[in-house]
Fold this protein.
Amino acid sequence: MASVYARIARSLGATGSLAIGLLTTTALIAPASAEIEIVTVTAQKRVENNVNVPISITVNTAADLKNKNIGDLTELGQKIPNVNASGTFTGSFNIRGIATSSAGSGFPPDVGVNVDEVYMGRDRAFDTVLSDVASVEVLRGPQGTLYGKNTVAGVINITSNRPTNEYEAMGDIRYGNFDFLQARATVSGPIVEDKLLLRVTGSYQNREGYLDNTYLNIKQNSLGSWGGRAMLVYMPTSDLNFELRLDGYHEGDTAGMLETVHTLDGATCSSFPYNFLGCNAAYYSVVPSQNPLDRKVEDNTPYDQKRGMWGTSLKGEWNMANGYSLTSITAYRNLSSLQNADQDGSRLDGFDTGRDEDFRRFSQEVRIESPAGDRFSWLAGIYADSELDHNFYHIHVGQAFPTFLLGAPFPSLLPAGFSEAAAAVSTIQEDSASAFVSGKYNITDNLSISGGMRYTSDHKSLVYQQSPTTPIAYGVIFAFAENIPLTHATTSASELTGDANISYTLAENQVAYFRFAHGFKAGGFESDIISPPAVVTPSTIVFQPEYLNSYEVGFKSILFDNQLSANFAAFYYDFTNKQEQVNTGVSFLVSNAASATSKGVELELNWSPEILPGFSAFANFGYVDAKYGTFGAFTGKQLAGASPYSASWGASYTTAFMPLSNTNFVITTDWDYRDRAFTDPSDNPLIEVQSYMIINARIGFEDADGNWGIYAWGRNLGDKTVLGGGVAVLNNIYITRSINSGRTFGLELRGHI
């Protein structure tokens, strides 16, 4: 049966792609009395009270997503303590200092994103429009027992709504500035009552760009997407049911969100040491000085991104007569994407890069769960997956590239019409198999122990070649892309991961716990563009697995007659061979840091006072100290993507609107703060994300029975400009940074029949 979720962890908010925080929500029906409700989760693949699960979990329900105008997973992920989230096309999450974005397909992310228990596999598939979602669980910390090798940072579980045995239809339309339009609709009901049920949902989203390309006279960062999902449930008996799912999503016309911070211009050419090296200031004088905050760019090559994905899964559940249950999940995923970026950030033809990818994944899980017992319960299973990833990375160099940096025999200015290009073509095959077991034993009514183990065997193979794709006149392209003949490489890893926990119930809904977890992530390959002075052999193209030991103490509670929920956690991470992407100035290489540590605390509070029905407030706080131990020149530096401090606070109020019968007035607001973060291991201050605060609000009227609603919403009401992650090329000559949207606002209409 489907999991049942009540509303407790209102760790949400509504911001642009760089905001973070937590926003308490209010249900569509004004509460008769204030109360924090119990929430159940499926984080450990069984239905449990969140308070009793010894893992740091933030649960976001359908009501949270609707009331906070959350459109995608990135916006949702930004609302959790010690979590940074950004990007849409390539979703990037940093959980407790562990970054999950990847530069190449040979370096999979450290977070597991699962939709209806199916692993998405690549960060290009993480973030889509959230439509008809029942809940989202964010598990912080390594999840090596039940979720496997690529969950060192944590797991995000998305559960969609199941078909209903009664006919229903619902939908919403949102319109805002930048001509933003989003429409979502769902229909559900029986084909054969009590036996065959169907639910279909679809979404459409469109927005003009919020970056002005004043050179090409176009808008960049436009967005157009559409997608759908269908779920067919067949219940031949009361103890047996099958769920067939099919989904698809397409996103196009995504023309980038990169702002130019610095590029080669006449002033730079005239300064030392570039003038000494022979830079032609007159040639670059046509490039104006850059204002990275004006949301204006002069790219001669438009930034372009497109992706399409689809998948299907079949889940079978059999509740056996002896109380045991057997579950099987068979899934297939397919992802195709392409992207191209103007890396010099100017109107001149300097250089640009791009990537085309075709990714396929098949997985099979079978597990058995014991009957619920007073003392002991267990779960065991096997899991296997197979991935095939084809990639085409390309790089192009034009006349405006500063060849004076390369020295003789290259001229200081390339001839008009100059063009050289190269490409790296790679195919990665990965096959993995694992077996796992998890159990819980109640020693007394108050004291329990739990834990589990997972053995994983992983094998990967690579076929790689890099060569020019255009006639070579001067060989400038070889400064960026070595001529690498066809190369074969393999890597294998086997590891025993798991967790051990002890929990003590102080009183009803008051639980203290200690958790130890060991996680690992398999090694991989350099499969992106490889630049000098790298020496490529079957051994040097491989990087090693990473390992993490995690220690956590926590306290979860619902206090004062269900008026206050308070969750606290303190953690310490000890990394071995941590995998990191290092910017060499011309490309990214993956290295293994010998050691790294991350330690911190998290506090989440939600308050629904009995004396103020309809009112709720929240406050949360996160602190993380994440640093490299031994890692060459990066020793002692802050881990890439980690913000030392995060905090958010806000309130929500719902009350009857007396002029209209059966109508409520609702208002919510949140204030989200994030401390500074660096975007690469060098802690380069030129691409540092400065601390910021984002303010969001929502106000409207709704039917007390949830049949309709009309709202006005606003995000980033203070119009705060935030420069996010970036890339510095050639000793900071070229610097581009992501940039958030400014103030956005609009109207929303909802209906439910």
User: Anything to note?
Assistant: The radius of gyration is 26 Å.
